[in-house]
C-alpha cells in the first residue's frame, strides 16, 4: 500500500507533468475580518487552534503564546497579523483549506473559497495543490499519538488531509452543494485507508483521556484535527466492526467514521423538539446517525421524565416551503443530506399538545392544502376528497409494504403493498382529532381488525379503526396533515406501532406501570413473537427501552 510519503514523492518523478502554481489568494479587509471571526468561533481553544496552525504549516516558533485570560478573538488577531505580514506563503489559501477540511459546508468558509476559486460551486473542487511550500515544524507526536495531518509539505506535493484528491466524492453531491474534498478516496491514500474516530472533547483533559483510552486498546490514535468540542483520530485499523466493539467498551462519546469517508463537522444544526423548543447542535459530526441526534436531544433536554426517555422518536428534515421529509434513523447526517445550518424536527411518536383551536373553515382549507402538498411530493400517493370543494373526508391510497390478515384463523399473515385509508373530520374538528379507518386489509396491532375474526364480529362498528393511542395523543389542533399522512405510512411499515405504554406511574417496587396500547389482539400477540418478520419488513424493533449510551453526545444549546 502506498504511504502518504510515496504519494507526495510522485510530484517530482520524471515523466509526470508539473502543474502550474495556483494563483495567490488575496482577501479584502472585510473578507479577512469575516474569516478571522469565523475561525475564532470554530477553533476557539488552544488545542483546536494549534491543530489548524499545524495544518497550515505555520512554524511552531512563529506562533503567538496563548496567554491566560486571552479570548480566542484576541489570540487569532495576533495570528492574522502574522499571516498578513507574510510569515508563510499564500496564507489565506492555507487557512481556508485547513478550515474546510474540518467544516466542509460552513457558509463563511465556503463563500470565501468559492469567491476566490479555491472550490467550484456545485461541482468538483478546484486545484488546491501546491500551496504549502514551506517546511513545517515537527510536532506531530503530541496528545498521545502521531499527528496524521501534520502537513509538512516540504516535498511540494499533495496535502493528504485537504480537498486535493481529485474527482467527486461518492455521496457528496447529494447534499446539494459543492464537493469540497475531492473524493472517492483511494485505498492507497494513507489517511483514508483506516477508520477515524471523532470523540467529544471540550477540554485538554478530555483530549488526553481520549487519546490514552484509544492507545490502551491498541488503536494507536493519530490526531487529525481538533476543535473546541471535538477531536478526530485516525486509528490503526480499517475493520469497522472490530473498532466499534472496542469503542462500545469505553467511556468515550464517539462517532466512528469508516475508511474512505470524510470525517467532518457541521458547524451548527438546528433542531425543533417535541414541545416546540429550538436547539442548536454545535460541531455535530456529519457521520453520526440521525437517530443519535434525536437520542441526545431527548436525553439532554427531556431526560427528567423516564417515560419520555423510553418513548420512540421520529425525526424530519425541514426542506423549506412547508415541506418536510421523514429521515431514516440509521442514516448518517451526511447521507440524509443535512448540511450546515440545516433544520430538523424531533417528535415523539405520540405527543400530547394543547393549542388554541382554529376556526373550522380555515382549518378545513389548511388540511386540504397540506394533504395536497404532501401528495404532490410523494409519487404514488393518491387523494380523493368529499365534498370536492372543501372536503371533510379524504380517502388516501399509497404504496407501502405491510402485513395482510392471515388467510385462515391462526395462520401466518401475508403481505400487501397497496394501502387505502379513510380520514374523517368530524363536527368537533379541529378541537377534536380526526377519525381514521383502514379500508384495505391490514394486520396491525394498532388497527381494529378489518378482517373476519371474533373481535370484528363482536364489534363490527369499529372495523378498521386506527388506535387512538397512536393517533389522538399525537394530535394537536395545528397538526400538519402532511405529518398525519406520513404517520399512516409509518404505521403500515411498522415504523410506528406499540403494544404497551407507560402510564407515568410506578408501583411499590419502583417499576414503571404500563397499560396495553393495541386494538388487534391477534396481531399484537403475533408481532410480540415475530420480531424477525417485522425486521424483514424494515420495521422498528418492538423494544422501545433506552439503549446503552454508546454514541456521540452532541453539544445541545437551547435557542429560546
Task: Provide structural commentary.
The protein is 28% helix and 18% strand. With 560 residues, it is of the alpha+beta class. Among the domains are: 29-116; 192-263, 2-Layer Sandwich (Alpha-Beta Plaits); 357-519, Roll (Ubiquitin Conjugating Enzyme), CATH 3.10.110. The strands form four sheets. Strands 8-7-9-5-6-16 form a six-stranded mixed sheet. A four-stranded antiparallel sheet has the order 2-3-1-4. A four-stranded antiparallel sheet has the order 10-11-12-13.
Element layout with pairings:
Blueprint: H1 4-9, H2 29-42, H3 46-55, H4 72-84, H5 91-102, H6 107-115, E1 196-200, H7 204-216, E2 222-226, E3 230-234, H8 240-248, E4 254-257, E5 265-272, E6 278-285, H9 290-301, H10 306-310, E7 313-320, E8 323-326, E9 343-348, H11 360-376, E10 382-386, E11 393-404, E12 414-424, E13 435-438, H12 454-458, H13 468-471, H14 481-492, E14 500-506, E15 512-516, H15 521-529, H16 531-536, E16 555-558
Parallel strand pairs: 5-9
Antiparallel strand pairs: 1-3, 1-4, 2-3, 5-6, 6-16, 7-8, 7-9, 10-11, 11-12, 12-13, 14-15
Amino acid at each position: 500500500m502506498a504511504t502518504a510519503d510515496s504519494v507526495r514523492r510522485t510530484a517530482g518523478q520524471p515523466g509526470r507533468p508539473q502543474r502550474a502554481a495556483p494563483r495567490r489568494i488575496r482577501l479584502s479587509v472585510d473578507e479577512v475580518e469575516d474569516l478571522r471571526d469565523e475561525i475564532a468561533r470554530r477553533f476557539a481553544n488552544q488545542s483546536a487552534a494549534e491543530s489548524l496552525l499545524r495544518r497550515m504549516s505555520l512554524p511552531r516558533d512563529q506562533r503567538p503564546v496563548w496567554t491566560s485570560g486571552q479570548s480566542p478573538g484576541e489570540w487569532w488577531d495576533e495570528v492574522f497579523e502574522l499571516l498578513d505580514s507574510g510569515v508563510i506563503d499564500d496564507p489565506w489559501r492555507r487557512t481556508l483549506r485547513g478550515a474546510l477540511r474540518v467544516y466542509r459546508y460552513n457558509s463563511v468558509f465556503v463563500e470565501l473559497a468559492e469567491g476566490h476559486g479555491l472550490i467550484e460551486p456545485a461541482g468538483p473542487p478546484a486545484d488546491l495543490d501546491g500551496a504549502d511550500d514551506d517546511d513545517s515544524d515537527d510536532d506531530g507526536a503530541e496528545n498521545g499519538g502521531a499527528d496524521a495531518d501534520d502537513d509538512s509539505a516540504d516535498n511540494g506535493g499533495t496535502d493528504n488531509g485537504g480537498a486535493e484528491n481529485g474527482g467527486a466524492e461518492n455521496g457528496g453531491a447529494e447534499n446539494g452543494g459543492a464537493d469540497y474534498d475531492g473524493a472517492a478516496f483511494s485505498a492507497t491514500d494513507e489517511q483514508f485507508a483506516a477508520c477515524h474516530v471523532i470523540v467529544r472533547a471540550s477540554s485538554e483533559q478530555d483530549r488526553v483521556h481520549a487519546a490514552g483510552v484509544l492507545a490502551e486498546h491498541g488503536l494507536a490514535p493519530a490526531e487529525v484535527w481538533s476543535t473546541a468540542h471535538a477531536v478526530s483520530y485516525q486509528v490503526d485499523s480499517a475493520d469497522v466492526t472490530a473498532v466499534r466493539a472496542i469503542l462500545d467498551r469505553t467511556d468515550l462519546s464517539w462517532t466512528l467514521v469508516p475508511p474512505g469517508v470524510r470525517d467532518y463537522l457541521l458547524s451548527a444544526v438546528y433542531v425543533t423538539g417535541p414541545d416546540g423548543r429550538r436547539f442548536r447542535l454545535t460541531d455535530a459530526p456529519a457521520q453520526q446517525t440521525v437517530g443519535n441526534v434525536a437520542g441526545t436531544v431527548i436525553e439532554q433536554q427531556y431526560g427528567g421524565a423516564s417515560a419520555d426517555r423510553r418513548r420512540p422518536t421520529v425525526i424530519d428534515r425541514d426542506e423549506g416551503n412547508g415541506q418536510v421529509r421523514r429521515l431514516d434513523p440509521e442514516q448518517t447526517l451526511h447521507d440524509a443530506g443535512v448540511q450546515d445550518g440545516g433544520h430538523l424536527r424531533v417528535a415523539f411518536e405520540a405527543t400530547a399538545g394543547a393549542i388554541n383551536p382554529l376556526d373550522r373553515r380555515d382549518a378545513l382549507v389548511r388540511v386540504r392544502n397540506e394533504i395536497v402538498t404532501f401528495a404532490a411530493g410523494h409519487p404514488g400517493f393518491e387523494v380523493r376528497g368529499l365534498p370536492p370543494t372543501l372536503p371533510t373526508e379524504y380517502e388516501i391510497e399509497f404504496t407501502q409494504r405491510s402485513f395482510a390478515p392471515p388467510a385462515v384463523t391462526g395462520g401466518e399473515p401475508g403481505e400487501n403493498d397497496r394501502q387505502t385509508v379513510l380520514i374523517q373530520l368530524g363536527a368537533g374538528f379541529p378541537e377534536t382529532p380526526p377519525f381514521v379507518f383502514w379500508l384495505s386489509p391490514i394486520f396491525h396491532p394498532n388497527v381494529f381488525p378489518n378482517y373476519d375474526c371474533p373481535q370484528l364480529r363482536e364489534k363490527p362498528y369499529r372495523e378498521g379503526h386506527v388506535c387512538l393511542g397512536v393517533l389522538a395523543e399525537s394530535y394537536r389542533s395545528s397538526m400538519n396533515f402532511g405529518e398525519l399522512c406520513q404517520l399512516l405510512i409509518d404505521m403500515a411499515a411498522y415504523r410506528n406501532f406499540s403494544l404497551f405504554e407507560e402510564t407515568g406511574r410506578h408501583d411499590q417496587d419502583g417499576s414503571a406501570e404500563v397499560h396495553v396500547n393495541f386494538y388487534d389482539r391477534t396481531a399484537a400477540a403475533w408481532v410480540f413473537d415475530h420480531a424477525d418478520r417485522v425486521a424483514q419488513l424494515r420495521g422498528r424493533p418492538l423494544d422501545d427501552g433506552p439503549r446503552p449510551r454508546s454514541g456521540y453526545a452532541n453539544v445541545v444549546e437551547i435557542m429560546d
